[in-house]
């Protein structure tokens, strides 16, 4: 929060899937619109709709957030990247227009960690990475995050889901994938790796954040 304040950025946190924090966003947008309207009127200018842009990584819920703010389905939304393909102006309410845009990925990723996180979040195509490798790296991430209290990771929940202690995976991710594959996917490691990643994406392992908030 201090970093955002120092840069005159005031973030609003929300969960578009569950609807948490939406009222605060709508209230903030309305306040901004009123302020802009008053400024235009004071200068003898006509009031016109204010415009905002929904911009972010693919598959983070931009369209779902727009639908929540509009209180109706005005943008296509699905649990996969690439649903929004074109720029489209959407009238959210009287006086507010929002531009729904396709997800964007930086043309250059500074490190492998950024690419790994995008793969884990299903923001880049499966053909661009090795499932087995990403699954094993995810196990290492779980280990690292579990050492931080605010990560809220339940190792017991993960272990119970697969019937194999996840801490064994901390010692040897390769062996853990082998053992869980024997239990759940008839020994098919690729299917097991995919299952682990899909379980993470669908929050079956809990609300896991890949990076500790600032």
From TrEMBL:
Gene Ontology MF terms: GTP binding; GTPase activity
Stored Gene3D superfamilies: 1.10.1580.10, P-loop containing nucleotide triphosphate hydrolases
Keyword terms, alphabetized: GTP-binding, Nucleotide-binding
One term under GO cellular component: mitochondrion
Domain G: 54-113
A single BP term in Gene Ontology: mitochondrial translation
Protein's UniProt keywords contain Nucleotide-binding: yes
UniProt xrefs under Pfam families: MMR_HSR1 (PF01926)
PANTHER family cross-referenced by the UniProt entry: DAR GTPASE 3, CHLOROPLASTIC, MITOCHONDRIAL RIBOSOME-ASSOCIATED GTPASE 1
Protein name: G domain-containing protein
UniProt organism field: marine metagenome
